[in-house]
Amino acid sequence: MSPFQGIEQYEARTEDYQLLPFRFILLDHDRYVLTNLAGEYLIAARKTVLDLLQHRLSRTDPAYCDLRARHFLMDRSSSIAPTLLSLKVRTRYHRLAEFTGLHLFVVTLRCEHACPYCQVSRQSEDTLRYDMSTETASAALDLVFRSPSTSIKIEIQGGEPLLNFGLIQLIVREAEARNERFGKKLAFVIATNLALINEEILTFCRDHSIVISTSLDGPKDLHNASRPRPGGDSYERTIAGIRLARQFLGSDQVSALMTTTEASLSRVRGIIDEYVAQGFSGIFLRPLSPYGFAIKTRSYRAYDTERWLDFYKQGVDYIVELNRQGLDFAEYYASTILKKMLTSEDPGYVDLMSPAGIGIGAVVYNYDGSVYASDESRMLAEMGKEQFKLGHVLMHRYEEIFSSPNLLDPLEESFAYSAPMCHDCAFEPYCGADPVFHYALYGDYLGRKPESAFCQRNMETFRYLIQKMESDLFVKQLFTKWANR
Amino acid sequence: MLKLHGQLPIVNASRGAPYLVTVTTHDQLPPDQKRTRALLMKPRFDPTGFKTILVKKNESPRERTEGDVFELSADYEYLDEGDILRLDPVAGSMRCLYRRNSIHNTILLTEQCNHYCLMCSQPPKDVDDSWLMDEAMELIGLIPPETEALGFSGGEPTLRGDRFIQLLQLTKDRLPRTAIDVLSNGRAFKDLTFAAKCAGVKHPDLLIGIPIYSDDPVRHDYVVQSRGAFDETIEGILNLKAVNQRVEIRVVIHRQTVDRLVQTCEFLARNLLFVDHVALMGLEITGFTRPNLDLLWVDPYDYRDVLSESVKLLNAYGMTASIYNHQLCTLNSDVRGNYRKSISDWKNEYLDVCAPCTKRDECGGFFSSSKLYKHSAHIKAFP
Lengths: 485, 383
Hints:
The complex is a heterodimer of chains A (485) and B (383).
Chain A: E1 18-19, E2 22-26, E3 31-36, E4 41-45, H1 46-53, H2 62-69, E5 73-74, H3 81-98, E6 102-106, H4 127-130, H5 134-144, E7 151-157, H6 165-182, E8 185-191, H7 199-207, E9 210-215, H8 220-226, H9 234-249, E10 254-257, H10 268-277, E11 282-283, H11 292-296, H12 305-324, E12 330-331, H13 332-342, E13 362-365, E14 370-372, H14 375-382, E15 389-392, H15 398-402, H16 405-414, H17 435-442, H18 453-470, H19 473-483
Parallel strand pairs in A: 6-7, 6-13, 7-8, 8-9, 9-10, 11-12
Antiparallel strand pairs in A: 1-5, 2-3, 3-4, 13-14, 14-15
Helix pairs in contact in A: 5-6, 7-9, 12-18, 13-19
Chain B: E1 5-7, E2 10-12, E3 19-24, H1 31-34, E4 37-40, E5 52-56, E6 68-72, E7 84-88, E8 93-98, E9 106-108, H2 131-142, E10 149-153, H3 162-174, E11 179-183, H4 192-200, E12 206-211, H5 217-224, H6 229-242, E13 246-252, H7 261-271, E14 277-281, H8 293-296, H9 304-316, E15 321-324, E16 348-349, E17 366-367, H10 368-372
Parallel strand pairs in B: 3-4, 4-5, 5-6, 9-10, 10-11, 11-12, 12-13, 13-14, 14-15
Antiparallel strand pairs in B: 1-8, 2-6, 3-7, 7-8, 16-17
Helix pairs in contact in B: 2-3, 7-9
């Protein structure tokens, strides 16, 4: 007789099993997406889900093994699942303990562009009124270094921040000097339209390892139409600026963001082609945010979520095909979501965080010393809604600012895991709370999810990404790479 | 295949206990050294004062010496300066424990094991072999510190408990620059105190290789023939990583594991992303694999796409992954970056069909046992 036993000898001795916490949602006509506590997903047929829930799924069902191995069910053959699940959940949330890592400095509201979708800028020449003062910058740096985060990123914003380059230099030098004592991982970004870039500025950037983030909306006509400036040469200046900045800093030190407008919607391929032509390794196909002039000028409502989704899917489809032909090019919104789907790491993207990323992921020091819970919060404030103003750098202490009810209330009330409908949603691990968006459009931190454009857009994006990778191994492998970028 | 152990005809031997001795090819040594050396005899050498003299057939030294004299057959022509042997002067048995010119020296710490793997290459024996640990301790003292790498294997080395930790400590003290690979099933490390003791040695280059054969606990338990093994092994790995000990996951690919190989790699990426290395390994046709061959055999050529998918997945997650024990002509070209020549030199061979192959130097070839018993039906020379 063989001394070896068959596999059935290692199964549990009883047929019963226990369900671990998971949620499910319809993917298409007959299939469901199941997500476990750590955000891992499985696709299952309706019958499998029903059998599973009624505790009558047979061990011989091919889905049984997968459900057990991915911690959706547990039987008496193994009890390690809770240990691994909790480890993954802890990993997902480990960023919370770090607290605020991204600190945005609005060094001026002045800008020489006049973009209709812009949320904040001013054309005023009155420097005193719209520039940050050195006193304000210094007090803001006090707050920056109160953050327990082991890595600090300071993002210089505007307006067009290069209009106040003197203050940028001061902030960078001062932050570096202070960090000698703290030893944190310190990084700088300047978000600029590059129209005013020059060798002197770039030399400073190079010497202080500052990276550049710029705006590129697409091909020349589209870009110049949505980003008017005196001379109508925004595109030419941006492209020249990108080239010059890459020469000084290295090509991976310059990134670009595009803003979607009504005019973009029919031109996703052209926009992507422009990014490819300019040598970028990816693009962020962004939805337009509902703040500032965007709402005032009605450009936000000029197209609805459905149209944006069409635009987005066409774009990702096209990018996938480019990759199939051998080009290495990513879509960053998908990458962010895929990181949440395929890894236990949180990408730290403020709009898709729960608890929300406001204040505890990123914080904004406005030109006038006001502290806002996010970039969108200060845009909302420009519309007269001060709901997310946390205090003032010269008037409030760190403790007052970060325990302000204007921060704690929305964090608590919007937390998706306990929000109505979100709590039951299988996509909750991939989604975010975004109280600022909901407050801006619906007047409270939660909104009603069936009416929420945020909910509609993201749910559809999640379904689309899952369907796409589940039906094509090449896409699954590509998406796995994006998730781990 | 090199013959690492066997019987040596005794020409003349004391009746003493077995001992370890270092091979030398120089007869002019200080008396102290001679007393701990085995001289590889050559004409006109003076064997006086050596602990042991190893002679070729019909080449016995003319003068009588104090030392033990054994006859070496052609099988042992590989023996060279610095190699270390265990000799039993009563039984006439010899085991080559260390070859100085090899990076594949593995020290057997015990033949006992709490697993009974379907494909075990070193079938466990339930006998008291604690002397192996004593021998290993002595051996570590003899091995030169410039040795690049050493393996500790079993059986299950951690069954020796604190003696195993002592061995690691001794190895760190004596051989601080030698990379140590331990093959363990990891279960003992479910005791966090034991894991902490292991990491507490602070060995500069210690890697614990631990097998996970499936993402499905039942299948893993089945392959290792031990109920509850999966849970304890996972706990052990988590503990080792919690105390910052380097860990390698080893997956042997055969018919009982290949169907869930992609899922297993996905499991590693999702649950054990922090391990230091993943080895996807071909089957060695020795030990229990031979009686279980029908249960285990799958032609690597037939799973080449599954292997590609698995490796791509691990690569995408940024895990360091290697393919061991395979032949290049059975794999897709997209996994070349992960391919390693891994088969230990003493049991590594090629087929006749490999003779004209242009990639032979890059290829790991075969286990001697594969050549003898079973190999892929798709071996062909690259033009």
